[in-house]
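Predict the 3D structure for this chain.
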Amino acid sequence: MLVPLVLERHARVMSSGDREGVFTVAAPIMQGDTPAGVVVMASISGEFDRLVRLERERVLQMFIVATLVSVGLSLILASTISNPLAELAAAAEVGGARNRGRCGQRGRIRIPDLTARPDEIGRLSGALRGMVAALYHRIDGNEQFAADVAHEIKNPLASLRSAVGTLRLARRDDQRAKLLDVIEHDVRRLDRLVSDISNASRLDSELVKEEQESFDLIAMLTNLAQYLGDQAGQKGIEFITDFPREPIVITGLEARLAQVFVNLITNAISFCEDGDAIRLWVRKRENRVVVVVEDTGPGIPDQALAKIFQRFYSQRSEKEFGNNSGLGLSISKQIVEAHDGVIWAENIRPTDADVTSDPLGARFVVGLPV
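Done. Predicted structure below.
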C-alpha cells in the first residue's frame, strides 16, 4: 500500500568564503512518521539578483511603454475630441460676443461641420448648426415680416394723407362726406391691420408656451359648424357637414386649431353667394386625420394657388378691398405646421384630367397627426 509523502520545506541563506551568498532550500521526504529522505536545492544568490533585476527592467519597460501609450492617446483624444469641442465653443462664444456688441466682426456665425462623425460630437455639431440655421431663418422671417408690415401700412396711410389733403380743398358737403367715408374706411383698415399684425407677431411665442392637450376634434368641429352654419344660412348658403360617428381624439392646441377652421370656413362664406354650398367633412386615415372645407364659389385663380398662404396676400374683389388683412391663411398655415400637420388649397374640377376647365369651387385640406 502506498503512503502519501509529506514535505516540510526549510530555507536558509549561507555565505561562502568569497562572500557570495548561497540560497539553500531543503525539504524532508516523510513516509508516514518516518523520514525517508531529503531533497536539497542550492543556488547562488546572484542568480536571484539577476532575475530580480530582469524583472525590474521589464517593469520599467512596461512603465515607459504605458507612458508613451498614454501620451499618444492624449494626443489622439485632443485631436478628435478636445480640439473639435474647442472649435464649437469658440464659434458659440463669437456668437455670444456679437450679441453683446463686443465683437467687431460682421457676418453670420459659422459652426464647424462635423456631422460626418458618427459620435456625440457629430451630433452636437449637427444640433448647433440646426439651431443656428433656425435662428437665422427666424431672423430673416422677422425682417421680411417687418418689410411686409411697412409696405401694407403705407397704403392706407397714403390714402389717408390724400383724403385729408383733399378734404381741406373740398367745398361741397357731398364731397366732404365721401372723403370722410374714405378716411373712416382707411382707419378701420389700419386698425384691422395692426390687430392682425399683433396677433401674428405673438403667434410663435404663444405656440411654444401653450400646453398641448388631448381633445375630441369631432366635438370641436360640430360646435363650429353650428355657429358658422347659421352665419352661412343668413347669406343663403347651404352648410353641409359629414363627420364620423366615433370621436377622433388628437393632441394639440384646441383654440388655435379652432382658429384655423374658423378662418377657412369664414373665408369660404365670404367668397360664396346666395345659392352656393359649403361642405365640411372629416376622414381618418391610419395615423392622420383629414379635415376638408369645400365650397361652390368661384374657385381660386391658378396664379394665386402658389401665393395664397403668403402674408398679406388677398384675392378679393374691388368692393371688398381693405376688408381683409391677408394674414388669415398665413396664420392658419403657421398653426397647422406647428402641429406637424399640412395644409393646401386646390380647385375642384369636373374631372382631374381636364385641368383647363373652369373650377366648380375651392377646396382646402388640413392633415393632422392622430
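Residues 212 and 253 are 5 Å apart (CA to CA).
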